[in-house]
Design a protein that fits this description.
149 residues, three-stranded antiparallel beta sheet, two-stranded antiparallel sheet, 4 helices, 7 strands, globular
Length: 149
Amino acid sequence: MKVIQLTDYYPAIGENYLNDEDEVQINKFNGRIRKVVRKKGKVLKPIGIVGNCITKSIQSGEANIITAEVLSGYSTRRFLKEKMHYSESEASRMTLDRKSYCGFTLMNRTQTDVLGVLFFDSSNKKVFSDNFIEKVEMYLPRVGEILVS
């Protein structure tokens, strides 16, 4: 199973993401195709937060919010490979200063189809708090409805 990244990251990657006219630079990651599951033996393992969101929503038939933090004693690369099922080459292409991740699934009104996943990450730990998740849970169903109306 694969997904297509529809939007660019914001702000653009790099120290100075504004050009001389104070316009956001486009980093041209949209259109990328990514795997969301990997076969390990006879088991399919979700890759990263996006893979976890999609597989959990398909299994449960409801929108999900998933968060993760790089574990103490782990580098980001090791965490991505060992806990999030990234391959070595996938992990090496990731932004390695990230410590917190959050994704939530957008589904249609009847919750039969996954429409997409909104993904966030941060270089800080404990960014995606219970308060943040409560607010997302309150508005998440409406966001999906708006996107398909």
